[in-house]
Amino acid sequence: MLPEQAHGKLLIFTAPSGAGKTTIVRHLLQSFDGLAFSVSATTRPARPGEVHGRDYYFLSKEEFMGRVAAGDFVEYEEVYPGRLYGTLHSELHRNWARGNAVVFDIEVKGATNIKAHYPEGSLAVFVAPPSREILFQRLRDRSTEDADSLRVRIARAGEELGYRDRFDRVLVNDDLPTALAEAERITREFLASQSVGHPRSDPGYHPPAGA
Ligand SMILES: Nc1nc2c(ncn2[C@@H]2O[C@H](COP(=O)(O)OP(=O)(O)O)[C@@H](O)[C@H]2O)c(=O)[nH]1
Ligand SMILES: Nc1ncnc2c1ncn2[C@@H]1O[C@H](COP(=O)(O)OP(=O)(O)O)[C@@H](O)[C@H]1O
After folding, report:
1. Tell me, what's the ipTM?
2. Domain segments of the chain: what residues?
3. Hey, how many other C-beta atoms are within 10 angstroms of the C-beta on 139?
4. Rounded Cα–Cα distance for residues 57 and 40 (Å)
5. pLDDT tens-digit profile of 70-97?
6. Which residues, other chains included, contact 201 with Cβ-Cβ below 8 Å and sequence gap of 6+?
7. pLDDT tens-digit readout, 3-59
8. Is 8 annotated as a binding residue?
9. Where would I find the Guanylate kinase-like domain in this sequence (predicted)?
């Protein structure tokens, strides 16, 4: 068990939509014991094949706002108009209590906020596409979005590319096997590194005597 108010490790993958972070995170979850996914809550509808509680907690706007009011989120963002996404405190503590490092698939602002809240024990990796054109092509080829949703994602993805140098690492996802091998290397090193920290803005935490 972790000491009260202490926290475990956080491995954050962030990128513009379509860069490949979901593909990379899924691969890592299959490849490593001791990693657990931070299942976010969202108000967007499930895509075919997505499972409630595994890919996301799919909530109505009312349910989501109720949980905001209850203080259940570490962070949340309206990523697309009317589409809320957020990280639940309960999700992190549930996974840390089991001794797992938590892995995130999250957009750039959420990643920045998580990293600021948990500066110790966290590593943020920006997944970069080989080019803007390839990024947009991947989004179109994935065929998960209707025309409007695709347009919104492409516009936002263009902006998010500008966050590239604000994180701890950049992982270029050009050839997929090469990117997966690099992601494995980063993860192996991270899991072997020093572990527990304390959240920066947690008023309840007092360091143990002699710490
Ligand atoms: N801030 C924040 N963003 C999230 C969270 N969960 C997912 N996202 C991001 O929201 C964006 C939209 O996710 P999604 O609808 O699954 O679309 P996709 O990126 O096109 O696969 C992605 O950049 C996700 O990484 C969260 O808990 N908080
Ligand atoms: N290196 C790659 N080469 C070609 N296609 C890729 C590569 N990585 C991911 N893809 C494909 O690009 C699309 C977007 O990837 P995804 O993992 O959904 O991105 P994100 O989660 O960042 O939005 C998916 O259809 C995925 O299969």
Report:
1. 0.96
2. 10-192
3. 21
4. 6
5. 999 999 999 999 999 999 999 999 999 9
6. 117
7. 445 789 999 999 998 999 999 999 999 999 999 999 999 999 999 999 999 999 999
8. no
9. 8-188
